[in-house]
Recover the amino acids of this structure.
DNA sequence: TCGAATGAGTTGTACTATACAACCAATACC
DNA sequence: GGTATTGGTTGTATAGTACAACTCATTCGA
């Protein structure tokens, strides 16, 4: 298989697809190990809400390609746990702006700590350049289309 | 943030974690769009079985960090669909060796075609070198520990 | 300016994915 | 030969998800 051979691309493409999928399949187990107290999806949405200070349910659904009903229930669960609060949007009464509560921010900080430690561990022997490039590739891949 | 600053590493690590998670959250929706006839996990396991010609349920559980009961049910579903068959292992009567049936191989080929096309599309403007490196990074990340 | 179309969110319902525990059967190891 | 281990199934419970039908608020067009 020489350089420029279309099969070389296909091999890489297949590997990328396979490895991304394997990662996705394992994500739940990893999350359960790292923060058994906070379900995986709840954690993800809470992190996004915190990151985007003041996002809407629809934004979450769009970002993660989830149905709005799914997000609605997830938010309800997070609210019940006291981790997220809804604020009415004065400009558009259909909208609820989501914010982490103090408890939410704390919980997130704690679990984010252990998550980051785990990922950092796993990436401990990577050069800074490789980390950077890997991060860029993922961003580029995810932002396509 | 200068080079060598530990925070530079953390930024990359956070991005990697965030983007991998985002990908994982979207995987189901993507799969549903690409092959509505074959549920995501079924597809993944079938692909692995095909790849590893003759693997055991336990191997699947190990590879994807799933409980053996989960795998057992998934295999049962694939068998019911006529996509996988179990062959007894003559050396160890506890073991069932899993193989794709002809129908399984066909189904896989069809869906794999559309999947690969989608990924290839999304990676169309990547240089071969970038593809290669991205694939390597993913392999390296997934094989850690 | 009113009625239709659109958009945000909720709720009913159903199904997939998953884990844990208890179990059975075959094998391996003293 | 008895005990521990391993591969797999089944019962049960829960998370995660989609789709459809709904409500309420907003916008837009005639």
């Amino acid at each position: 298989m020489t350089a420029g051979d279309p099969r070389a691309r296909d091999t890489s493409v297949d590997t990328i697809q396979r490895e991304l999928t394997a990662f996705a399949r394992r994500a739940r187990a990893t999350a359960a190990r790292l923060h058994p107290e906070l379900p995986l999806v709840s954690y993800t949405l809470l992190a996004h809400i915190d990151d985007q200070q003041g996002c809407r349910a629809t934004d979450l659904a769009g970002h993660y390609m989830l149905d709005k009903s799914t997000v609605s229930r997830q938010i309800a669960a997070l609210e019940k746990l006291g981790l997220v609060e809804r604020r009415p949007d004065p400009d558009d009464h259909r909208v609820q702006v989501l914010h982490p509560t103090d408890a939410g921010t704390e919980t997130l900080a704690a679990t984010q700590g252990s998550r980051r430690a785990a990922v950092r561990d796993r990436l401990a022997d990577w050069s800074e350049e490789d980390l950077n490039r890997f991060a860029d590739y993922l961003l580029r891949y995810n932002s396509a289309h």
In short: The two ends of chain B are 30 Å apart (CA to CA). The longest strand of chain B covers residues 84-88.
